[in-house]
Design brief:
Belongs to the CheD family. It comes from Pseudomonas benzopyrenica. By secondary structure, the chain is an alpha+beta fold. Helices cover 18% and strands 30% of the residues. The chain is globular, with a radius of gyration of 16 Å.
């Protein structure tokens, strides 16, 4: 079985003997799986959208809105209807426990809010979420079966704790 590791800005859609893997902190990931068509995909996005609303014709998976557009376009190329997919949303963790609330400290929450709003705008229902909280997540999607494996590592808000990086 092959593996593909998604870094921030990456996304993949397809089928086959492949596992998609990623590690999420404040970033978010959409996971799609169609049990009948045996097609699936995953995104790894850093920010809700381009800062300042900059417009470009080139879509970029670093942004949640672009990543969702790109994966939906890939579904369309396969002749697949997004409403037939099981959709999961992961990530958006706080990576700075104990830090007073600032825009940087709340990016995970903003990412989750943006991802949920986008799904709603496209008329898509999320079947499963594992979002926010403290720490990072290791995520694996098996494209043969649609099985998702998730491990979450939490950070302590106490810098003297052995769990603190």
């Amino acid at each position: 079985m092959g593996e593909r590791f998604l870094t921030p800005g990456d996304w993949y859609f397809g089928r086959g003997d492949l596992q998609l893997r990623t590690v999420l902190g404040s970033c978010v990931s959409f996971v799609f799986w169609h049990p009948g068509d045996r097609l699936g995909g995953m995104t790894h996005s850093l920010l809700p959208s381009r800062l300042g609303g900059a417009k470009t014709t080139r879509r970029d998976g670093h942004y949640i809105d672009d990543a969702l557009y790109l994966i939906l376009r890939a579904m369309a190329r396969h002749g697949s209807d997004p409403r037939g997919y099981r959709i999961h949303l992961y990530g958006g963790g706080s990576m700075f426990p104990g830090v007073p609330s600032t825009p940087a400290a709340s990016i995970g929450q903003r990412n989750v809010e943006a991802a949920r709003a986008l799904l709603a705008a496209y008329g898509l229902r999320c079947d499963k979420t594992h979002v926010e909280g403290i720490g990072h997540r290791k995520l694996i999607l098996d494209l043969r079966t649609g099985a998702v494996s998730l491990q979450q590592a939490t950070l302590s808000a106490n810098p003297s704790s052995p769990d603190y990086p």
